[in-house]
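Question (not urgent): is this output format expected?
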Amino acid sequence: MVKGLYTAYTGMVNQQNRMDVLTNNLANSATTGYKKEGSTSQSFDSVLAYKIKDTTYAARAQKIGTMNLGVKIGENYTNYEQGSFRSTGNMYDLALSGPGFFALEFTNKAGATSTKYTRDGSFTLNTQGYLVNKDGNFLLNSEGRRIQLNPMTDASVDEMGRIYQNGNVVTRVGLTDFADYNYLEHYGENYYEPVEGATTKAATAMVNSGYLEMSNVQVVNEMVELISVTRAYESNQKVVQTIDSSLEIAANQLGKL
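Got this back:
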């Protein structure tokens, strides 16, 4: 009976993790280029043990029985499905159609710089003519350098990411793609950074000037999932209350003369 308490507890913890993921998605439903996250869970199928200092079991585990130990929180994942486009009319708002990321020169609070990647293409020209995002991080070109334009001259951007001024190609927007997105991890709300094992490849995305890619979060779906999580949490909570009541009866009433 006591084991049921732990089983229900693991269910509550798992639903709490799902709730955290869903609420984060909802909070970023209006964030440009945001990709929704999901959660997974795993079950404990059996309990294994090793006999200490027993060489006959040194190479394998020995089963000591099968027990339902509830659910284990698995890994979170990111859904990289493309979001819808919103027209802005701003020349330097860029949306990617297809797989790929913008490369940014990111500066942290300590002043250290590194390259981060994002699908958020809301850029503007600063006073020096550099293309930057809302955080002041520099958009990089295909050569990994900052993009600097003449702020007094009109510009245009074609689908290949080439930036024109006075009819001449000034530079090209730097795009990067990865062979396996499992080697990307979130950095902040809308940046990604590769981890060990990540392999880059040429991006095939087309650049759409005057548009922004919206979040791929479907608010209605997230709300429905949120209700399901709440119901599952309440079910586990009732199991805990029921077992607690049974234990109280066993401890305080059974065996009385």
